[in-house]
């Protein structure tokens, strides 16, 4: 039975269900192409940009545009990033299950244990927000996704959100996304 996530491993399982459903042909006949690592990295990066647009004016990169800050919208966009981190980790686990050797699988399994611990007890680093944002982007494009995930959680804490906020918002958005697959993720005729 599918239930509300309580931990990082629950999130990975829910993401696996969503990704599986998203990859199947849709009711209108559309068949998504196979997802590749670059697609996921670009999705993470895109979601970061969407989240940055929801930051308060003192942190928002759109210095020319006045916008009312909405904390709930920021949390939703921050959680959207989480969807693609989870997709990335599941994607790599699937590749290792298919092609990897025992050493690779053990290494990745150790990384998942580390990520689970990091999610349960994230650490806040005392540096400027923009330094953290730069570090997040740098890690993503330097093939250091486990490190990027730690920075992501640090940023969430810095912004005043905890893992329970992420779990709650993920669950709400996951349920919504499961319904969107055959509605607003396809061309309606």
Q: Could you explain how this protein is built, in words?
A:
The chain is mostly helical and 189 residues long.
Structure summarized in a few sentences:
The protein has helices spanning 8-23, 37-53, 71-99, 102-120, 129-141, 145-158, 163-180.
Write the layout of secondary structure elements.
Elements: H1 8-23, H2 37-53, H3 71-99, H4 102-120, H5 129-141, H6 145-158, H7 163-180
Q: What is the element string, with H for helices and E for strands?
A: HHHHHHH
How far apart lie the N and C ends?
34 Å
Counted by DSSP, the helix tally is 7
Radius of gyration: 17 Å
Fraction in helix: 55-70%
Strand pairing plus helix content: what structural class? mainly alpha
**Biggest pleated sheet:** none
Global mean pLDDT: 91
3D shape = globular
Q: Can you tell me the residue ranges where pLDDT is under 50 for at least 5 consecutive residues?
A: none
Beta-strand content: under 5%
Total number of strands: 0
């Amino acid at each position: 039975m599918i239930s509300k996530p309580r931990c990082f491993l629950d999130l990975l399982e829910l993401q696996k269900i969503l990704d599986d459903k998203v990859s199947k042909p849709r009711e209108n006949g559309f068949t998504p192409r196979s997802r590749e690592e670059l697609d996921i990295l670009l999705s993470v990066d895109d979601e970061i940009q969407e989240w940055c647009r929801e930051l308060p004016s003192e942190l928002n990169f759109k210095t020319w545009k006045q916008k009312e800050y909405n904390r709930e919208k920021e949390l939703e966009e921050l959680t959207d990033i989480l969807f693609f981190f989870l997709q990335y980790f599941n994607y790599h686990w699937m590749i290792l299950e298919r092609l990897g050797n025992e050493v690779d699988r053990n290494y990745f399994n150790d990384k998942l244990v580390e990520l689970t611990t990091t999610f349960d007890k994230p650490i806040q680093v005392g540096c400027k927000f923009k330094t953290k944002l730069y570090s997040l982007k740098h890690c993503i494009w330097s093939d250091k996704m486990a490190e990027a995930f730690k920075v992501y959680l640090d940023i969430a804490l810095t912004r005043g959100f905890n893992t329970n906020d992420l779990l709650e918002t993920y669950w709400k958005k996951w349920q919504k996304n499961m319904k969107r697959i055959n509605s607003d993720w396809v061309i309606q005729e």
